[in-house]
């Protein structure tokens, strides 16, 4: 669980970094628009990148999932020790699976955001070369 929480925090930080770079590149593009309409495509790609980074940031992280303490306390009052232990291990395994899926979704969204960011930068550079 601590490893998954650390990975989730790293992906959140990466998403924030992509959003900051998106904003900076958008400011540069808007400041130096040329006669060609490639800047519109670059801004559209930046918008996609920013949106995907925000979605990655908004997904719940591994630190926000896990067995609820109330459920554990209630289970300990109503179940025997062996059954409680099995139940807790089953819950932990389920939470680990959920966390892995969440981290995978975050990683995919962040990778797509970075891809669109790079594409936007390349389109803007091509527009400057054409000028």
Can you walk me through this structure?
The protein is mostly helical and 131 residues long. The chain has one domain (2-130). Helices cover 85% and strands 0% of the residues. It contains 4 helices and no strands. It has helices at 2-31, 38-58, 69-78, 81-130. Helix 1 packs parallel to helix 4 and helix 2 runs antiparallel to helix 4 (81-130). The longest helix is centred in the last third of the chain and has 50 residues, at 81-130.
Tell me briefly what this model is.
The protein is mostly helical and 131 residues long.
* Total of domains: 1
What coarse outline follows from CA principal-axis ratios?
rod-shaped
Radius of gyration: 22 Å
* Low-confidence regions: none
Strand proportion, as a percent range, falls in under 5%
Please give the share of residues in helix.
Answer: over 70%
Q: How many strand units?
A: 0
H/I helix tally:
4
The largest pleated sheet is described as: none
Q: What is the string of helix and strand elements?
A: HHHH
Write down the overall mean pLDDT.
Answer: 77
Cα end-to-end separation: 52 Å
Structural class: mainly alpha
